[in-house]
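tool=predict chain=A
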Amino acid sequence: MRGALAVLSLIFVLLLGAGWWLKHEAQAPQATLAAKIEALGRKTPIDIDVHSGLPGLRSISVRLQSGTTSYELLNEAYPPASWRGSLLTDKHLHIESDLTELKVPEGPASLVVLADTYAWHLWSSGPTQLLTLPLTVDLTPPLLAPLTTQHNIRLGGVDTVVFRQSSDTVSSGVVVEKYFFPAVTGYFADSAVALALFAVPQDLDISAEPKLVARDAAGNQREVALACNIMPQRFAERSLNIDDTFLNRKVPDLEHINGLVPSSNLVEGYLRINRDLRIQNEARLREVTATSATEPLWNGPFHRQSNAAPLSSFADRRTYVYKGEVIDHQTHLGFDLASLKFAPVEAAQNGKVVFADNLGIYGNTVVLDHGLGMFSLYGHLSSIAVRVGETVAVKQSLGQTGETGLAAGDHLHFSIMLHGVHVDPVEWWDGHWLRDHVTNKLALFPRAGAQKAGQQK
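tool=predict ok
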């Protein structure tokens, strides 16, 4: 009898030990923030990663403690997947609670994260506090006031807004539907006054509504509609015939230069270049033009390539035809200018070289930064005579014209871009337009360091 009891006791102890081992929590749960947070605005996103060992998480609670009041931001329970527990060891939380609706007061507060697990404990511990983060609740968006009152802009064109923003602003600019044009600060003597060059891009229409936006560190955002008169512009429609001679000459070469897998069908290869490679090239241009000098490097209207006749205009709507069949549609974002073969390519204005290399459909390409977000592009060059980082003067030779890239013949592809968005070069060739839409607006307020190089006259 005693032997049987001993065996049963041993079995019980073994089962208890096995259960304890299976339900034991080898590692206490932990919580980490995906990004540092010092202030919460009305809907500041909060990303939290919670990790626990087996047998897994039972529940997670996220609260905001303000004074003696606790505001629940999240409360989740995780049901067991087996007798052992949920087996959920990792959980990512994304929270965007509306603190205004929760009536959380502004001021100091603490973000608190608690979690409970399915682990056995010698005594009931309940949820464990994993994280306590002191922060500030700030629900008031920054102040924003336009100082230029009327903005006349053509579709595909540019204008300048000058505005005042409060000192808590961390980012600002102009939003035009899907496009954002960042502000330039520190240009004027009054640090609260900022400026932004903005465009109504050619793929929008005159119903677009540009807005000034400003955001603070807590993510609070204020929007102010800009008084803006958008004038229509008609863009040319052109058909381009693609023949086998062109395909045989261009497609294999462009595939090789740009590291593309050779196509067995030249038309399919051409479409991959004309569509996919074009998209990749524009993405690369947005990267190249992401940073610009915070003052104008130009002085006066932009120079148009000497003795060059236009082969196309800005934002031509092109239809591509092969053997009488339409195979593609694209928008040509720039001017094609032709003179003599291997003609010198001249810098449109003073600037700094930010790109000098192959760029897919543009071939050998040079991109210049002219400051305040303005850039110029020179494509299809047969040779490049400048290097990245080099400062160039207006009319300085950047290389020679050619037919690299997707060019059918020797010419210069010329583009003007604002933060990577192609805009109409005709405006920048016009001194009268430049004074009315840019220069005169920059002269409205005293300049910071009035003797800075590059100040416009």
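Confidence is low (pLDDT under 50) at residues 13-23, 451-457. The CA atoms of residues 141 and 220 lie 5 Å apart.
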